[in-house]
Amino acid sequence: MRYREAFRLAFSQIRSQKLKSAFAVLGVFVGATFLVTVVSVIGGLNRYMEEDFGRRIYGLNTVTVRRVPSVQFGPSESARRAWRRRPLLTFQDAEAVQAQLEVPAIVGVESHSGGEVQGPDGTTLGNIWLTAASPEYFAIRNMELAMGRTFNEAEDRAGSAVVVLGADAAEELFASRDPIGKTIKVQGSSFRVIGVMEKQGSLLGISMDNRAIAPSHSPMARLVNPAGVVDEIVVKAQDEVAMGRAMWELEAIMRERRGLRPTEENDFELETAEDSMSFWTRISQILYATFPVLVGIALIVGGMVIMNIMLVSVTERTREIGVRKAIGARRRDVVRQFLVESAALSLMGAAAGILFGQVGAQAVSAFTPLPVSVAPVAMVGAAVLGIGVGVVAGLYPAVKASRLDPVVALRAE
Amino acid sequence: MNWDDPAPEGDVVIRTRDLTKDYVLGAETVHALRGVDIDIERNEYVAIMGPSGSGKSTLMNLIGCLDTPTAGQYWLNGEAVAGKDDDQLAHIRNRLIGFVFQTFNLLPRATALHNVELPLIYAGVAAGLRRERAERMLDKVGLGDRMEHRPAELSGGQRQRVAVARALINEPAILLADEPTGNLDSRTSREIMDLFGELHQGGQTIIVVTHEADIAAYTHRTVLLHDGMISSDERKRPTRGLAAARPESDFQPPVGSAAEAT
């Protein structure tokens, strides 16, 4: 009952001073907006990374041998130099792995580069992701074909100039015509199109469909790497346990091949999807660690602004407080009036921030490649924080108002 | 408790004994009231007069329970007031005292109706009943057609009527008016004083603090303060207003505010 009255009063007060109220809640508004937007974006990225990135880029239960880490998180100059001294990975390494690995697993090689392709009608596409890979590539990467077929073991051994195109590359080169059997040029070399991949979509804004994949021993190999060199040896095990064993065996095989002494460190990298995502884990850890601080600062500033505005409000309304006390308002009535007002004010700021944060998150998802997931927890959190900031910020002004001497307050101008 | 001077019984609404108020201003102590003894009975109509600095405002604040005495006793409606805390005093103000101020002291953003309802809110009266009682009270002071107006949309006299309605809404033991006509022109002053006269005849105990002899002339008793003490206390027949001008049977309630187009 009393609270209803206090709310009514609070809203009429806020309404009557819209501009001042709007300024008062700016800090809380910014804090709430920030909280909702950032949590939505981080949450979306997290889900995306876990669900899509790992599977699509690395494949499940897959270990990749590389010369240097695929994601380099601010390496030092000395680390960079050490990486440059590492030997290159070769087909022989891959064959040795294939021969010596005891765990049942699919072993493939991959090399990647960028380049241009040209269609039969002369259409040239730049910035195409070129891959030279063993036939196992498609199985390891869980990639399905939309039409045609993949190349086989025999074609790979023979180094046949055949190519599987990404959906976008095929679309742009052939439009609605059937690309199968047609000849395209990759960096000037001719390849026969034998298949087109299903659309993979984009990952962090990079199209996964602008690509051309040819056998590892085909002319593509020399377009992406020096002769005999591969970027990655990929080993896909049946399950997680087998992957762990494969990793252990891989390390042993590679160390033996490199003739490393037990005291020497690996001069190659073994990566799993989890490893490579560690960079993301680190980023999100940093974000999650710093951003409460930023939100906290916004809310503290917001709270101080509200407190100031409420103090001014108490001063301006000294006479009103005097009148209210004269006609029977007790201290707690006055405290309640101002607390409810500052809580309502702050909550309104937070609510606006939540709405705006949603809009912001949607904007991020619409105008950037970053995925966004709605974060109900962040929204509830922002609302609760909003009320909390309002109550805390309003406490001192409210108590101050309630302690006014009615005789003095009634005399105020 | 002073056992020689027991709490009042019967019709005594206000009794003070040796009521004293000192203000400490820096190193100096100002003796605003130096032992005031006063009894006011139910349905008295009293003017408290005195020059500025005489202590009449202090006395009003003490009688109105807005302030607490430095020493002395005060019974309001048979209840000792001294020693009550802030919230208890607020409760007493809410239930037993109706204030009318020189500057009206209405809430500017609230309608006349809401202003009158305000004491009922603090008394915890339900919204429906509140509204009903406030409407009835505004009708009684002749503002039945101005309920939704805000103070800025009302004349001075109308505002003071709203204030009177607010003061009376909880049926207080005393109506305490501090220079109620100080901000009104003479004609409007007369109307307000006529309203007071009517209320008095309806049984209301009224105390008017004023420095105008004109206003005191409407009352039945004049208490004169000087240097924080009562210098005279006279009961008399009012020389102005309803009671003086007309026999009681003749009395007519004040009508509307058509005459108040100031």
Keywords:
heterodimer, A: 413 residues, alpha+beta, 2 domains, 6-stranded mixed beta barrel, two-stranded antiparallel ribbon, 15 helices, 14 strands, B: 262 residues, alpha/beta, Rossmann fold, 6-stranded mixed β-sheet, 4-stranded antiparallel β-sheet, 8 helices, 10 strands, 26% strand, globular, disordered C terminus
Quick take:
The complex is a heterodimer of chains A (413) and B (262). Chain A contains 15 helices and 14 strands. Chain A has 413 residues and is an alpha+beta fold.
What does this structure look like?
Chain A is of the alpha+beta class and 413 residues long. Chain A has 15 helices and 14 strands. Chain A has two domains: 2-52 and 278-411, no CATH class; 87-267, no CATH class. Chain A is 58% helix and 18% strand. In chain A, strands 3-4-11-6-8-7 form a six-stranded mixed barrel. A two-stranded antiparallel sheet of chain A has the order 2-12. The model of chain A has no long low-confidence stretch (mean pLDDT 87). Chains A and B meet through helix 1, helix 12, helix 13 and helix 15 of A and helix 2 and helix 3 of B.
How would you summarize the topology of this molecule?
The complex is a heterodimer of chains A (413) and B (262).
Chain A: H1 2-16, H2 18-24, H3 26-58, E1 62-66, H4 77-84, E2 89-90, H5 91-100, E3 105-118, E4 124-133, H6 137-140, E5 145-148, H7 153-158, E6 162-165, H8 167-174, E7 183-186, E8 189-197, E9 202-203, E10 206-207, E11 211-215, H9 220-224, E12 229-230, E13 232-237, H10 240-258, E14 269-272, H11 273-316, H12 318-326, H13 331-367, H14 376-402, H15 406-411
Parallel strand pairs in A: 4-11, 6-8
Antiparallel strand pairs in A: 1-13, 1-14, 2-12, 3-4, 3-7, 3-13, 5-8, 6-11, 7-8, 9-10
Helix pairs in contact in A: 1-13, 2-11, 3-11, 3-13, 3-14, 5-10, 11-13, 11-14, 13-14
Chain B: E1 12-25, E2 28-41, E3 45-49, H1 56-63, E4 71-76, E5 79-80, H2 86-96, E6 97-100, H3 112-123, H4 127-140, H5 156-168, E7 174-178, H6 186-201, E8 205-209, H7 213-216, E9 221-226, E10 229-235, H8 241-245
Parallel strand pairs in B: 3-8, 3-9, 6-7, 7-8
Antiparallel strand pairs in B: 1-2, 1-4, 4-5, 9-10
